[in-house]
Amino acid sequence: MQSFATSRRGVEAYIEPATTVTATTVVLIAGDGEWTRRRVADPRAARALAERLRIPVYEAAVVGYPQRMREWNRRKAEQERGGRDE
């Protein structure tokens, strides 16, 4: 996580709450929309991580995900299918 946060610009953390089937996770999203997700012990651990990395932190269930993440996912999907439209 530290490597991701320090090697990219504009990184923000989004805490995803635990559900009945998944643990609490934190998603780091870079300024260009690239992202990575990891499990954390609880929301407090996610906040501590963001504080240590000196990046903003948000509750994904409250604010949602930034548009840049959706655009990055779309671009990546297009690249994986060779740029063809389906």
Short description:
It contains four helices and four strands, in the order αβββαβαα. The chain has helices at 2-7, 43-53, 60-63, 67-80, and strands at residues 12-16, 25-29, 35-39, 57-59. Strands 3-2-1-4 form a four-stranded mixed sheet.
Secondary-structure content class: alpha+beta
For the biggest β-sheet, the strand order reads 3-2-1-4
Kindly report how far apart the N and C termini lie: 34 Å
Output the radius of gyration. Answer: 14 Å
Largest sheet at a glance? 4 strands, mixed
Average of per-residue pLDDT values: 94
Quote the beta fraction: 15-25%
The tally of helices reads 4
Describe this structure in words.
It contains four helices and four strands, in the order αβββαβαα. A four-stranded mixed beta sheet has the order 3-2-1-4. The radius of gyration is 14 Å and the shape is globular. The chain has 86 residues and is α+β, with helices and mostly antiparallel strands.
